[in-house]
Design a protein that fits this description.
The chain is of the alpha+beta class. It has seven helices and four strands, in the order E-H-H-E-H-H-E-H-H-E-H. Bound molecules: 2'-deoxyadenosine-5'-diphosphate and magnesium ion.
Length: 139
C-alpha cells in the first residue's frame, strides 16, 4: 500500500471543513490509516517543513500552521496514492486551483490553503515518521 501524510490545516479545522476534506479522500476510495488532532509547535513544523526554512514565506507559514489545532492523517491506497491526494487537493494557491479540488472549492489565498499532502513517496515516509513515529517504515 502507498501512504501519504495529509494535514487538515488550522483554517480547515476552524471552518469546520475537516469532514468535507476527509470525505473527499474516502469517496475516492482511499483509506484513513491514522488520524490525530494536534496543536503543532514551531519545533515539529521546523522538521516537517525543513525544505522551506529559508523561504521568505516561512515565518507566515509557521505562524499560521501553529495558531490552532490541525488534523493529521495517514492516507493509504494503491500505487499512485501520493499523486492522487495532490490532485484532489489542487494547486498550492487556491486562487489558481481548479474547481472540484479542495483548494479550488474552499480557498482564496495561498497561506490559508486548507490542506497539506506529501509531494512524493520519499517525503511521505519522512513526514509520516515526523508525526506518527510508531508508523514509520523500517529503514
Ligand atoms: P504545497 O503545500 O502545495 O506542497 P509548498 O510545499 O511549495 O506547497 O509550500 C508549502 C506551503 O507554504 C504551501 O502550502 C503554502 C505556503 N506557500 C508556498 N508558496 C508560498 C508563497 N509563494 N507565498 C506564501 N506562502 C506560500
Ligand atoms: Mg509541499
Amino acid at each position: 500500500m502507498e501512504r501519504t501524510l495529509v494535514i487538515c490545516k488550522p483554517d480547515a479545522v476552524e471552518r469546520g471543513l475537516v469532514g468535507e476534506i476527509i470525505g473527499r479522500f474516502e469517496c475516492k476510495g482511499l483509506r484513513i490509516l491514522a488520524a490525530e488532532v494536534l496543536h503543532l509547535d514551531l519545533e515539529i513544523l521546523g522538521r516537517h517543513y525543513a525544505e522551506h526554512v529559508d523561504r521568505p514565506f516561512y515565518d507566515d507559514l509557521v505562524a499560521f500552521m501553529s495558531r490552532s489545532p490541525a488534523v493529521l492523517l495517514v492516507v493509504g491506497g494503491p500505487e499512485g496514492t501520493v499523486a492522487m491526494v495532490r490532485s484532489l487537493m489542487g494547486a498550492t494557491d487556491p486562487g489558481q486551483a481548479a474547481p472540484g479540488t479542495i483548494r479550488g472549492d474552499f480557498g482564496l489565498e495561498v497561506t490559508e490553503n486548507l490542506v497539506h499532502g506529501s509531494d512524493g513517496t520519499g517525503s511521505a515516509e519522512r513526514e509520516i515518521a515526523v508525526f506518527f513515529p510508531a508508523l514509520a517504515s523500517a529503514g
